[in-house]
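Need tokens for this chain, all 595 residues.
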Amino acid sequence: MDAEYAYTKKRMHFGKRCNFSDVDTIEVDIKSNPGIMSNYVRMDPVTHSTQCSKVYAVHEVNTTTATFRDNKMYHYEGGWPKDINMKDLEQTVRYRRKIEKDELYIHTMLQLLPSMEHCILQNNACNIYEQYFADVEMTPLIQRAFSRTVNVYRDPSNAKRQVTHLSWSPDQGNRFAASYCNVDFKKSSGSNHTSYVWEVENPNSAYMTLKPFCPLLTLEYSPKDSNTLVGGLMTGQVACWDIRRGPEAVDTSSVEFSHRDPCDKALWINSKTGTEFFSASKDGQIKWWDTRKMQVPTETLVIDLLKPEEQNVDKATGISALQFEPSMGTRFMCGLENGVVISGNRKGKTPSEKIATRFKAQYGPVISLERNPTFVKNFLTVGDWTSRIWSEDCRESCIAWTPGHRDFLTSGAWSSTRYSVYFLTKTDGTLDVWDFLIQQDSPVLSVKVCDETLTCIRPHEQGQLAAVANKRGATYLVEFSEALTVNQKNDKLLLTALLDRETRREKVIEAKNRELRLKMRAFKAHGESDLVDSSAKTDEREDSKDTSNGLKNTMIMQCEQDYENLINEELAREAEANNVELNNNNVLQNGTITS
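Here are the structure tokens for all 595 residues:
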């Protein structure tokens, strides 16, 4: 180590003082040189540093290190005398009592306790990892409901056509199919009948172009095979596609065995082979098909509400909505053009048994019909200007509904993940999101997707995305926030209680209405006799009323008479008392005069 030491000494301590003396004067005349002036540089300002403090030296010294050692002792039992066995409970208790009775015991403890308490307090430490409020439930934060448009998929053709149906692929929803068709037959022109399969990540070009021989009204992915699709054609036929084999249809049904009107509804059903589906149309027929044999339907059902056994197609009611829930086996639902919803069962032996359950759902055609994915007994209907939630236990009235909208509703769908959320599309291009657990009088979110009429909506199976299509051939991929897609802890219990309460209330109202109808029927059946009896009862009531009025008048008169008698008696008593007092005064006056 380099050791340095700086010595400091004042000016007065070294050297001798100056000794000045007188000498001969020397005069010097130094003339100025103007040439040197060019080398002169004036400095302004001038900075000069001065250090007036003392300078100290730094010393570094190695000191001896201190050695520390930690010792501990395990104290299991206190010190006992040799003659006491600490494992014998009786001896230890007896000896402890003996010590506690000693006079010096208390003083000794008072001296030892402070030092022991000091040591104990030194060992107390705060555990920074301890969960102090583990049993307290955290209050969930209020999440904001919002949405954003992720992608837009536009119709590549020049003639803008309406998107009539959307369907997500079953392989985690990486693709979706869209059917394009101009449903306005007066303005329909051109020979472009193509529909497209889009990839979610690529909105610029379609993944696959389907080329049917006529426009497609509906297109649905198979839930078991992501390469197979079925669609309904404008001619009433149904067709099947395998995208591995090209854009052309693999098989098409025969015209004579197909629908009479354009087939705008087609859904897959549960089957062991995974090749069966059923279709519906405005002609009032439901047909079941098998893709292995597409020429002829396996079964046909005509929706004739008046005489279902006759199966007369000419008297059938058009079908505007179709629904199938895979978890309910052979049961299906269809919405009709007259606002009636039919809950059918394919296992019925007769046509009347297959369409036994009916609901008067809307005033106009039922546009959309869908069961709740979790509570399958409850289903949503959309029509005219309102949407309604129904329960299969209540047939006469719905258990919940939305207020009337200013614009016409075009479609509706339940959320795939959140139980209480469903979506509605309107003709003004607005998408409404309703959550009945939060509020029932207005939507929790209303988004203006575009300026055109929205035609259909299809939520993704994971719930966060939804495909929304409009009348000009554009499909919007909308992403929703977690508040609209993720269930909270008690959402299922709360929605169950809400639906049960509303169902119970509607049942009570239905029972009261049923009783009133029975009374009205009984009244009409006994018409004249009831009128005669009622007139006789009316006369008796009038007589009894007159009698009661007479009794009341008699009682009032009797009370008035008694009141007058009491007043007269009181007046007579007062007059008699006054007379007695006057007589006494006269007697006193006469006695005074005589004396």
